[in-house]
Amino acid sequence: MSKPNLYTVISPKLLDIYDINNSVVVIIDVFRATSTIATALYNGAERIVPVDNVQKCIEIGNQITNSITAGERDGKVIEGLQYGNSPAEYPRSFIQGKTLVLTTTNGTKLLHMALNNGAAQVITGSFPNLSAVCDFLATQNRNVFLGCSAWKDRVNLEDTLFAGAVISKIKQHFTIHCDTSLMAEQMYNLHKNDMYAFARLTTHWHRLSKFGLEKDLEYCVTNDVANVLPLYKDGNLIIG
Amino acid sequence: MSKPNLYTVISPKLLDIYDINNSVVVIIDVFRATSTIATALYNGAERIVPVDNVQKCIEIGNQITNSITAGERDGKVIEGLQYGNSPAEYPRSFIQGKTLVLTTTNGTKLLHMALNNGAAQVITGSFPNLSAVCDFLATQNRNVFLGCSAWKDRVNLEDTLFAGAVISKIKQHFTIHCDTSLMAEQMYNLHKNDMYAFARLTTHWHRLSKFGLEKDLEYCVTNDVANVLPLYKDGNLIIG
Predict the structure, then answer these.
(1) What's the domain count of chain B?
(2) Which of B59, B133, B198, B212 ranks highest by number of CB atoms within 10 Å?
(3) Taking the alpha carbons of A137, A140, A145, A147 in that order, is the dihedral positive or negative?
(4) ipTM of the assembly?
(5) Out of B154, B157, B206, whose CB is closest to A17?
(6) Is B1 within a domain?
(7) pLDDT (tens digit, 9 = 90+) per residue, A210-236?
(8) In-domain check, residue A188
(9) In chain B, how many H helices and how many E strands?
(10) What's the half-sphere exposure (Cβ side, CA atoms, 13 Å) at A24?
């Protein structure tokens, strides 16, 4: 039996050049949406509702009991919402049993693109749940698309590095004819032992570190500290 | 005075997220259009007319005396045209004084996008004319966009590596806040001493080497063997 294919999609704008029908799409938004999603679920959130705008976030938040609304733009909590986009805001003592209604720009947009284009399964990936993502992908026998959320469609390195981390762990299960994947894997291998230092060179780190988020960003490039699988089902991300 | 900015655009689909007004755009199509363009001009072609389809190629070829028409799809000369897209087809003994009317898919599309979006100057770059490109860019005092032609919008490694080669040589002249540029430069530094071997791992090499083009491809990753600057002016690429 031939192996399924794996591709890395380095910006949401490139997703529609691929046929993602019946595939698994991994939404990657390392700084910080998908790291926060893994963390909140790991710490006992009942579910996460990803929405693409602030108004919808508030409306859905009002409809669900025991929910909180969250979202950031430029490192600050959005007016009208209650919390931000930092994994540090969601310890077990706070988030357990709650529904997190989360609005993000880049990640949510990509998630809806994946669903609209026929993906069979959509999961979210980040360094804090690297192993859970790899274990899942290796056993699905479906084509896989590692979807980097990027920043306003501009390529970012941290999402690409996460794709590389996945590839380096599970490539033996896939056929990979994809230069982006080759590049992502080599960049990851080059920097897996200096990730904290290297991540400081990325544009997104520069953007966010101004807001005192350095500790947050270090957490977001740490492997397996919130090792669950966020799986999209009926409008929610739940533990798969 | 602040330095101009430099960005790497890893696929034509990402060009329109940048403001390229008044900038220099470098069209990069290493395998093999821009390598062939540099070579033909270096060997004395009077000019190159880049066109985006076969019909136009034939029509323009008929209008210009001492011209030849050229273009390939999948490693073969297109029916109705006279020559292919290999730099080896254009030695001085053949091309000197002639006009080359060349149709390519990826490179020509990107060139027209750059012109339509307000680029002040459009040049073409490839390893055979690496130094000429760098010398030009370093002295223009304009923002620079290194535009990878990719393959049907899919990222390819050889164009990205060329962007990295340019960056490694002239980065001191620019402000660079661009993760793609950081990645391109690191990939280039990782492989500049094993370029022939590494290029064999790219998807495009696989695609083209089936047609016996290995020698061609090796030439296309060799620095400065056709070191002229192809500059777009009034519909033609001429030596700038």
Answers:
(1) 1
(2) B133
(3) negative
(4) 0.95
(5) B154
(6) no
(7) 777 888 899 999 999 999 999 999 999
(8) yes
(9) 10, 10
(10) 24
